[in-house]
Amino acid sequence: MKIQDRTFIISGGASGLGKGSAVEIIKAGGYVAILDLSDEETGQALEKELGPAAKFFHCNVLQTESIAKAVQGTVDWVKETGKPLGGVIPAAGVGLPAAVLNKKGDAFNLDDVDFVLGVNLRGTIDLIRQSAFHLAKVDPEGPDGERGVIIMVSSSSAFDGQYGQVSYAASKGAVASMALPMSRDLARHGIRVVAVAPNLFVSGMTAVMSERVRKNIEATFVFPKRAGNPPEFAILVKHIIENPMLNGAVIRLDGASRLSKIFAIMCRRDSQRDMV
């Protein structure tokens, strides 16, 4: 599918992987609707930075009504620009590390669990279902009759979840497991679905890590031995959009990293605050 002159909805698009994807799509001639919790002043600054191909919409993915308002705003913007919807990238995500039982034997807070699952899983599903309703009405493109693509953000934690990551791993594992059945659900509408599972990437969420934990994670990478950068995530997003044979798949983007039990113990001792 061509990116040029198509509009893509990106939640969490004001920073990190979401913003990186927005920049890459605009470079390829596309338009982006950026859904984010940032305030209007930040949103306006972002629009100025990215140019006329970007439009900011304040959105809280925990609230169905907020998503509906942002999606409808995007649809109205599409009518103004004449650039039809091309896809959805639900990149909004959070992590609140906590062991099921802490060192005192107390159970973790279910409100925190609900928050992580709400943003990472429910928020992803809600944005997709509301956006797909409009995406399915777009005129099909090319010999395959493709209308668009959904690119979800999972994590290496879906496969190598570490100490304190029960909620985060559960949410990202669920995202990974949705790729195939969702692709089957939406196939009749000419919509593809792919999930990307990154390991440590430079982002606001990983910025709270201690330097020691960050270095320990980077040491598990086979090559290159460093954290990923948003543009490296974004070029994969671009390829997924443009390659019609990518569908129903979960793609690991992790420098061949596989986190071990020993690493989990190191993280526990270091009392890490967050990890991808």
From TrEMBL:
It holds the Pfam family adh_short. The keyword Transcription does not apply. One of its GO terms (molecular function) is oxidoreductase activity. Keywords: NADP, Oxidoreductase. InterPro entries: NAD(P)-bd_dom_sf, Sc_DH/Rdtase_CS, SDR_fam. The keyword NADP applies. This is 3-hydroxyacyl-dehydrogenase. It comes from Trichoderma arundinaceum. The lineage of its organism: Eukaryota, Fungi, Dikarya, Ascomycota, Pezizomycotina.
